[in-house]
Write a structure and sequence with these properties.
alpha+beta, 4 domains, 6-stranded antiparallel sheet
């Protein structure tokens, strides 16, 4: 138990410590150190070894910090107090926590500075190998672990991790403000932002739009700017590849959007999207309805066709639903459509005759267009140069069924199977692109 004189002295030591902190805050370091040295001597004369050691640690702290040494002095001070039968002093315990925190900060600063030098001096092509193996995710999770307790409310999670999440938010803000760059395109303000997907060694993908980190996916390649039109309905969480997006040069897209088949008013584009959604929602399954729709709205195929012709006979037997005249070279592709709700899978997700017949039909048309290329050009005036065939069928298929379609598709790379979900995605992506060109 401490005597009254000891209690009074300790109270005075604490007041001196607070006064020294105030001097240091005002930049009066020499005066602060002088006060600490004076009171170190007084504590020693009074037999208060713990505070003598504390003031010695503080002298080091305000002259030339050595947190390892300071922690050692406080450990000795607490051990002395324990040997004297004194209760551990809260002021010394708090100072010990502060020294440990400062030591951790010093070590972390050193490590981060070293890491920054390594990262900063690394070649751009090596950055992903340095940091793209999960170490960045581990670093972020060390700052704040993602919410995993389903019984904990979101707000309790935020409150429990308030300062950690604040730090992550500041990191996000710095990225948001510093790496999304404002520019002008055709006299319009835009933001060009980095993208997490990079497929091309000879180009860089980015996002461009009116806001930061939003808008069209773009590709800068060989000195030209291109923007993406979706070729597939991209499900959330699905791994994407280059085949999912067709990057179109801006000038080519301007030419596509100026075709007579492209409505002049963007409201008409939106109305066409709504019309297809209504047909599908109403489970319309008559092929003739969709043939009429695509005749009126050929642009839904990515605006890549000047126009499409219905039932253009290649000969007396081969009469595809459509042939589309490409904008880029005036050659033709073949488009064969089937109803969206075609019963093409068995209960075990095997192809039924309905699908096989459609696939065989597409192969036959494509083979004829290739083999009889010269005949079609001379006798029919139809140009088929490296033609593709789009086979459109199915809607809201299961993941297993989609995988079966992709497997089948790999058997003939000239045939692209589109579901009605894919065409919807392509149409919406086209509308977004066209609206960007017509602000």
């Amino acid at each position: 138990m401490q005597n009254k004189d000891r209690v009074a002295r300790v109270e005075e030591y604490r007041e001196v410590s607070a006064r020294v902190d105030l001097l240091a805050e005002r930049g009066k370091m020499d005066e602060a150190v002088a006060v600490l040295q004076e009171w170190r001597a007084k504590a020693g004369e009074s037999g208060d070894r713990d505070y003598e050691l504390f003031f010695e640690a503080e002298v080091i702290n305000y002259s030339k910090p050595d947190y390892g040494q300071q922690i050692g002095l406080l450990e000795e001070a607490l051990k002395w107090a324990e040997g004297e039968g004194l209760v551990a002093d809260p002021h010394l315990l708090r100072s010990m926590e502060t020294y440990h925190s400062l030591a951790d900060k010093e070590r972390l600063d050193s490590l981060l500075c070293e890491a920054s030098e390594i990262i900063g001096s690394a070649d751009d092509s090596h950055i992903t190998s340095l940091l793209g193996d999960g170490i960045m995710q581990s670093f972020l999770e060390a700052i704040a672990k993602p919410k995993s307790n389903n019984d904990q409310s979101i707000y309790d999670y935020f409150f429990e991790n308030k300062h950690r999440l604040q730090l992550l938010s500041l990191v996000r803000l710095a990225i948001h403000n510093n790496y999304s760059i404002r520019g002008k395109v055709d006299c319009h303000d835009v933001f060009v932002s980095p993208h997490h997907i990079q497929w091309y060694e000879d180009g860089v993908q980015f996002v461009q739009g009116k806001g930061r980190f939003e808008g069209l996916m773009g590709l800068y390649q060989n000195g030209r700017v291109k923007f993406g039109i979706a070729n597939r309905d991209m499900k959330g969480g699905e791994a994407l590849g280059p085949e999912a997006i067709d990057f179109v040069d801006v000038e080519e897209m301007r030419e596509r959007s100026s075709q007579s088949s492209m409505p002049r008013q963007t409201s008409e584009l939106d109305q066409a999207i709504v019309k297809m959604e209504e047909l599908l929602k109403g489970r319309e399954n008559r092929e003739s309805i969709y043939q009429e729709y695509f005749c009126n709205n050929p642009w839904v195929f990515g605006a890549q066709y000047r126009h499409i012709q219905s039932h253009q006979a290649l000969d007396d037997v081969n009469i595809p639903d459509f042939t589309g005249v490409r904008v880029r070279d005036s050659a033709r592709d073949i488009i064969e459509i089937k109803p969206p709700f075609l019963n093409m899978f068995s209960e075990k997700n095997m192809f039924r005759a309905e699908f096989n017949n459609a696939w065989n039909q597409a192969e036959r048309y494509l083979d004829f267009a290739r083999e009889e290329r010269e005949y079609l050009r001379r006798q029919k005036g139809l140009i088929f140069d490296n033609p593709k065939c789009y086979l459109l069928l199915g809607y809201q298929l299961s993941e297993v069924q989609i995988k079966e379609l992709r497997r089948k598709e790999r058997m003939n790379l000239a045939i692209t199977i589109l579901t009605y979900d894919d065409v919807m995605a392509m149409a919406k992506s086209t509308v977004t692109f066209v609206k960007a060109l017509r602000p």
